[in-house]
Predict the structure of Acyl-CoA synthetase.
Amino acid sequence: MTLLTALQGGSGDSADALRISDGPGLSREQLLGAATAVADRVAGAPALAVLARSTAETVVAVVGGLLAGVPVVPLPPDSGPKERAHILRDSGAALLAHAAADTPPEDAGVAGLPVDLGERSATTYAEPDPAATAFLLYTSGTTGAPKGAMIGRSAVAADLDALADAWQWTAEDTLVHGLPLFHVHGLVLGVLGALRTGSRLVHTGRPTPAGYAAAGGSLYFGVPTVWSRLAADQEAAARLASARLLVSGSAPLPVPVFERLAALTGHAPIERYGMTESLITVSTRADGERRPGSVGLPVAGVRTRLVGEDGGPVPYDGESVGELQVAGPTLFRGYLNRPDADAEAWTADGWFRTGDVAVIGPDGFHRIVGRASVDLIKSGGYRIGAGEVEAALRDHPAVADAAVVGAPDEDLGQAIVAYVVPDGPVTGEQLTDFVAERLSVHKRPRRVVLVPELPRNALGKVLKKQLLADSAHG
Ligand code: MCA
Ligand code: AMP
């Protein structure tokens, strides 16, 4: 079976299979023909980077890489030189695909591959090895530069099939979302999911309430920030009453947002949980209970367990907390060039440590309580390592020291707050812009607090919990 079953097999609605904001609608044949033309140009390359703006060209480039069996490396389009250089160098990408009308960053240092939606090829490619890498997705750890998670083709297929089962997702659906095309949520679920199930895809460009309201779909994806903004717009929310299923993920959906959304749209949202490394592993079901504050049950093929601080099992009593570990066919193949990170992430008996703290009830329902580390921040559904932002801040000549925390934020879930010890005249705004220019824009601090020194314990470690408490009063 092929990875993009419906696209390659010719099932599902053909006309207007894909539409992104006000760009041209592409039929399945147009998409496949243009993507095959990309495949012809990239076949044999070690990896294909894609400047992942929310455009049809991005989808065509990604599909082209997948058809040719070349690992695809989505490059966040707003990533600054520091982040971009790391991703391109570490991944070994030989080419950077971009829309023909677009200019790729001059400093990329790899050959550009302009993508033209009008190109066509009818070459047929043998289905690549299911064990091969489909994507290299760069994702933050608590410290250092992002790590390249190697996502296998069979993991993508297993996850999409498990989600189709949990959400009763079929070719009859029209999927709507406006999420970025360089993460699991927007790209793997939000694009490949449509191309595997055969559902039409309407991408709204940005995930705005007005865009979602106007799209007229049956299946909607969003991060909690998107749902919270929609729930604050009564008129837009009411227009989702005709949908079949609303799905939230990438960060915890606050119970009041769940309830308001249900009241305004008539649909209790599905909440599901996952990670870049594991894809989506736990979800409530279209045909099951949708309990506020709960992410439901492991999806088909996935196993979960809770492990206590002593390494022993934690009872599934709905109260006892433990680290959530996962195993199954949706797991990634490891981190590229990072045996040290692999050694930390996997247990001796082959389970992946999520770093999330959870509770499981006697009925098997999972509740995510939080993260074990304060240094992994989720802001607007983006995963951001405090260490990476701190390192970028320290690169500024007027910064002596910096510590970053994720302060609770009603809109973004967590907002990045930076505590900075200045070493010369500098403003918070200058530091925010400095980070936004060097890393991705969403990694910028939303607030900068200039302090004479950072609170440290006797061992010299910054007291992040104290900074978090301070940030709540700021
Ligand atoms: C503001 N902007 C700036 C600056 N300040 N640009 C440069 N320098 C500055 N100092 C601009 C930005 O470029 C952008 O411009 C605009 O301000 C708004 O950006 P921002 O404030 O970041 O947007 P937001 O409104 O806060 O975004 C909320 C959001 C976004 C839309 C919900 O956070 C989002 O798309 N989140 C989705 C994340 C996601 O997909 N995560 C999935 C991870 P312009 O408007 O021109 O762009 S995968 C995952 O988690 C798994 C596996 C799972 O479970 O799903
Ligand atoms: P990422 O690798 O960007 O996908 O981030 C994965 C992290 O997002 C997980 O480790 C969780 O901390 C968080 N996450 C994803 N979905 C949920 C959810 N439904 N509830 C709570 N946290 C979530």
